[in-house]
From TrEMBL:
Residues 37-432 form the Peptidase M13 N-terminal domain. This is Metalloendopeptidase. It is an enzyme of class 3 (hydrolase). One of its GO terms (biological process) is protein processing. It comes from Tropheryma whipplei (strain Twist) (Whipple's bacillus). Gene3D superfamilies: Collagenase (Catalytic Domain), Neutral endopeptidase , domain2. It comes from the Bacteria.
Length: 688
């Protein structure tokens, strides 16, 4: 079952899309770039690197924040190759996967690397799915096929997943969201600066239908259909609004909504108009739900009209394009190159294919990521690092408490509830307590069929969740992932093993460096619990208003200033497009609060009472560590995509715009009104 629904449903990650560089950490301020930290901290720290760093041809971005990803990929590659060779992992502890699971890992990777077999098979692994689509003649056929394709791992006109109920997070509910687009976002279908992408997308669709033996003219019809779908899509700002997107309704209400615009003549053969969603549910193997969460209700209420106004032949062609896109990377060279030439070159700006082994690592990780993670942790996780990070987390939480207590804009009643939520935070570090059991995942004879089996395995997991209480031990990132996240539905912060290494955390480094790096990351994730959306959930993960009207209004006034600050930023590479301050608000609050509280936690760790106790040189190390995390170079195509759809601000401004709001930065570097980084005291935003 597809997990990628609306932004508010997903854990709030520290990073958006990432690349895979290796860079050396820099914390001493001697970058060799003639730029004052009072005018541009980002370039003062990273200037020499920005001048000399080159983005590899098979990468869309090259950044310090992905400093460990290549290492993690290489380590996982080694694990997979040993699994192919039947290695027994001698000397490892009992937490490693059993021989059957290792066999599955190795076989999947070996099948992916067997290009000779993939060339021999051609498109034959898709035949049964394409035949199923060819048989679609009615709306009932369509919904039956949409449900069946969900089991195969193919996305449809809407997405579905199982999540905790935001109004009762102890239970799981089936959740529905808009989908159906081949471009990254609805804005790609309407914004003038994406005209070139649209032209290339139509060319891509023509190539797809030629490969599939269909009429290239089908491309125009499919593109026009997606344009209609896009008109009913919510924009990215509305999609991250927890209040707007969490709509609890009965299953019968959703069924009625979906067919509300459907011509009665198209309902022939149905016992009831609402049976269309029942056909989908039965075909996808899901149990009958009493209640569901719907993210974008009017998308579903327009769905019947949209489908009724589209020739069934067009919908069949659209489904064929979906099947192709879902499995192109697992097919022969022609299929992969067709897919890559658009999604890799045009959308991401890549100049060359990633090496096949890397694509294989990513594929196997997408199917059996936690089984791989179990081996990864047994080999590479440093338990000493975990203990040190736990102390940093403790200092961060204590510093957040003191900061909340000292707020002058929040009433005592709301402070008590904020502290109650803070006390209920759950912290997960390194790896899950309970590993995912892959014994029921069945390998098939071919690569595509095995991928489909993996999708069915996930559907089964989702189905089982609906009959059980929420599993509080579940992780949404594997241990080998270089990232971190906050999950509002569980009020938890999670730090996978792979991020707890230099340059983010270094057991040999000064505390000032560690607090400016991993401390700010931890603070960022805690801060998501109190950002514009996370603050709508209480300590148990319940979506409810625990604020007084007065306090919420005061919070809104502060966040509005932050929205205005970022909305005024127009990156020089963005062709006149500005940062979306509303879209990026949650991440900007996380960055600002995270660095601010990390500074306070650093003072606590050193038993410093205030700035008078701190050496400016040490303080500068703290901010240098912050700046080096954000060094990044991106291809224009990739940067344009992120500017349109990513809730994170561009990395340069995650560095500079945050510190401009901190009194401690201005003190450390002794800024003055003539300095470019100067921000008048009255314009600085301090929330937490």
């Amino acid at each position: 079952m597809r997990r990628h629904l609306s932004h508010e449903k997903l854990p709030c990650g520290l990073l958006g899309e990432v690349g895979y560089p290796i860079v050396k950490p820099f914390v001493n301020g001697q970058s060799g770039f003639d730029c004052s930290p009072r005018d541009d901290l980002y370039r003062h720290v990273n200037g020499e690197w920005l001048k000399t760093a080159q983005i590899p041809g098979d990468r869309s971005t090259y950044s310090c924040f992905t400093v460990l990803a290549d290492e993690a990929l290489a380590r996982v590659r080694g694990i997979l190759e040993e699994c192919v060779g039947g290695a027994k992992f001698l000397g490892e502890d009992t937490n490693t996967p059993d021989a059957d699971v290792r066999h599955k890992i190795g076989t999947l990777y070996d099948m992916f690397m067997n290009t000779e077999e993939l060339e021999r098979l051609g498109l034959s692994p898709l035949v049964d799915m394409l035949d199923k689509i060819e048989s679609v003649e009615t709306q009932q056929d369509l919904f039956r096929t949409l449900g069946w394709l969900t089991l195969q791992g193919v996305g449809g006109i809407f997405d579905s997943a199982v999540f905790p109920d935001p109004f009762n997070p102890e239970r799981n509910v089936l959740t529905f969201a808009q989908s159906g687009l081949g471009l990254p976002d609805e804005s790609y279908y309407r914004e003038t600066h994406f005209a070139f992408v649209r032209d290339q997308y139509r060319i891509y669709l023509e190539r797809v239908f030629k490969i599939l033996g269909a009429q290239p003219d089908d491309a125009a019809a499919v593109y026009d259909f997606e344009c209609k779908v896009a008109k009913f899509h919510w924009n990215v700002v509305d999609c991250r609004d927890a209040t707007k997107t969490n709509n609890l309704m009965s299953w019968d209400e959703l069924k009625s909504s979906v067919v509300s615009g459907l011509d009665p003549s198209l309902q022939e053969g149905l016992r009831d108009a609402r049976d269309l969603m029942e056909v989908w549910r039965e075909s996808s193997g899901l149990p009958h739900p009493q209640e569901v969460i719907v993210n974008q209700p009017d998308f579903f209420s327009n769905l019947g009209e949209l489908l009724a106004g589209t020739p069934i032949s067009t919908i069949r062609s659209w489904l064929r394009s979906k099947v192709f896109a879902s499995f192109a990377v697992l097919l022969n060279a022609e299929a992969y190159s067709t897919y890559f030439d658009f999604y890799g070159r045009v959308i991401a700006g890549l100049q060359s294919h990633p090496p096949r082994w890397e694509r294989g690592v990513r594929f196997v990780s997408s199917v059996m990521g936690f089984a791989i993670g179990k081996i990864y942790v047994s080999r590479y996780f440093n338990s000493t690092a975990k203990a040190r990070v736990e102390r940093i987390v403790s200092n961060l939480l204590l510093s957040y408490r003191q900061s909340i207590l000292s707020l002058d804009w929040m009433t005592e009643t709301t402070k008590e509830k904020a502290l109650e939520k803070l006390d209920m935070f759950s912290v997960k570090i390194g790896y899950p307590q309970k590993w995912l059991d892959y014994s029921s995942f069945c390998l098939k004879d071919g690569l595509v069929d095995s991928a489909r089996s993996g999708a069915a395995f996930e559907i089964l997991r989702a189905r089982e969740k609906l009959s059980k209480p929420v599993d509080k031990t579940e992780w949404f990132m594997t241990p080998q992932t270089v990232n971190a996240y906050y999950n509002p539905l569980a009020n938890e912060i999670v730090f996978p093993a792979a991020i707890l290494q230099p340059p983010y955390f270094d057991a040999e480094a000064d505390d000032a460096v560690n607090y400016g790096a991993i401390g700010a990351i931890i603070g960022h994730e805690i801060g998501h619990g109190f950002d514009d959306q996370g603050s709508k959930y209480d300590g148990r993960g319940v979506l409810r208003n625990w604020w007084s009207d007065q306090d919420r209004e005061a919070f809104h006034e502060k966040t509005k200033k932050l929205v205005d600050q970022y909305s005024a930023i127009t990156p020089e590479w963005a062709n006149g497009q500005s940062v979306n301050g509303q879209l990026t608000l949650g991440e900007n609050i996380g960055d600002l609060g995270g660095l601010s509280i990390a500074w306070k936690a650093y003072l606590r760790s050193q038993n410093y009472s205030g700035l008078d106790s701190v050496d400016r040189g040490v303080a500068r190390k703290f901010f240098f560590a912050w700046a080096v995390m954000w060094r990044q170079k991106s291809r224009p195509e990739h940067a344009a995509k992120l500017l349109a759809i990513d809730p994170h601000s561009p990395s340069e401004y995650r560095c500079n715009q945050v510190v401009r709001n901190l009194d401690e930065y201005h003190w450390a570097f002794q800024t003055e009104t003539a300095d470019a980084m100067w921000l008048p005291q009255s314009d600085r935003v301090s929330i937490w």
